[in-house]
Write a structure and sequence with these properties.
By secondary structure, the protein is mostly helical. It has 2 domains: about 60 residues; about 210 residues, MetI-like fold (Orthogonal Bundle), CATH 1.10.3720.10. The chain has 15 helices and no strands. α5 runs parallel beside α8, α11 runs antiparallel to α14 and α13 runs antiparallel to α14.
Length: about 300
């Protein structure tokens, strides 16, 4: 018998058998009880989320129903009683409040304050964030530390000094004065947020753009802004909501001709403590605008939150 015949007849030369299904051919399938527990766990979590969402939205729904009820019904019973009598609901309260020049003027004052304050903060913070992240200039780190230190300065500390400064400059009691205050106190957080986001952009992208002959301004417009859109949208939402819902700054720096909607509603509450037919539609009008802004930018907002959590 030759060596070749011995090698062919040896057990080591036999072809390996294929693994049987379910025996080493991959990870074992989870059992029936485990799969059922996983589905129940997912259903319980979804149910809890639905319950939390209903609890969260109930006050807003109650405010909307109260704004549609007559004043005598709001004074005599709770808003949930209108669910059994929907015929009593109407838009008369909104007609009356929209015909009130003080409320409509305060609403437009709020728009004139919130929109410029948000746009200015986003533009200046984007420019400063790019400079702190990717430009080399003397004192860059020291200046950024000063910006970060300003985050811990409360708004209340600057109210009286800024009020005296605005009085000397003729800005006290005007819309530009309120806008400047919001811009000044919104910039530290905005610069800090965008600088950290821009710093996570791969350096190779910027170097490739510079090698192609792109200027810093072109890189900022064509590369930084599109890549940083989620963070910029998140910042815009935060800034707009803060300015739109602010009352402390407006109480101090705005007069009767430049007061926003929050101050106008507060004055109505002071004069007519139970005037729900005025306060409810006014509060709902004040709520619906930032809610619409959030839903308009929610896709970019979620992207910014998720990217920040991953980074």
């Amino acid at each position: 018998m030759t060596v070749h015949d011995i090698a062919e007849s040896s057990p080591a030369s036999t072809a390996p058998t294929l693994p049987q299904a379910g025996k080493g051919g991959g990870p074992p399938r989870p059992g029936l009880l485990r799969r059922l527990a996983g589905r129940l766990r997912g259903g319980v979590v979804q149910g809890l989320l639905v319950v939390v969402a209903l609890i969260w939205i109930t006050p807003t729904f109650g405010l909307f129903i109260s704004s549609l009820r007559p004043s005598q019904d709001n004074a005599s019973s709770g808003w949930w009683n209108a669910l059994t009598r929907p015929a009593t609901l109407n838009f008369e309260n909104y007609t009356q409040i929209l015909s009130d020049s003080s409320i409509t003027g305060a609403f437009w004052n709020t728009v004139l304050i919130a929109v410029p304050a948000t746009a200015a903060v986003v533009i200046l913070a984007a420019l400063a964030g790019y400079a702190f992240a990717w430009l080399d200039f003397p004192g860059r780190d020291a200046i950024f530390l000063v910006v970060v230190a300003m985050l811990v300065v409360p708004v209340q500390i600057g109210l009286l000094p800024v009020a005296r400064l605005f009085g000397a400059l003729g800005l006290f009691g005007t819309i530009p004065g309120v806008v400047l205050f919001h811009v000044a106190y919104g910039l530290p957080f905005a610069v800090f947020l965008l600088r950290n986001y821009f710093a996570d952009i791969p350096q190779e992208m910027l170097e490739a753009a510079r090698m192609d002959g792109g200027s810093e301004w072109l890189i900022f417009r064509r590369l930084i802004l599109p890549v940083g859109r989620p963070a910029i949208a998140s910042l815009a939402i935060f800034q707009f909501l803060w300015v739109w819902n602010d009352m402390l700054v407006a109480l101090i720096f705005a007069d009767s001709g430049s007061q926003p909607l929050t101050v106008a509603l507060q004055s109505e509450m002071r004069q007519f403590g139970s005037n729900i037919d005025v306060l409810a539609p006014g509060a709902f009008l004040s709520l619906i605008v930032p809610l619409g802004v959030f839903f308009a930018f929610q896709r970019h907002f979620v992207q910014g939150v998720m990217s920040g959590s991953v980074k």
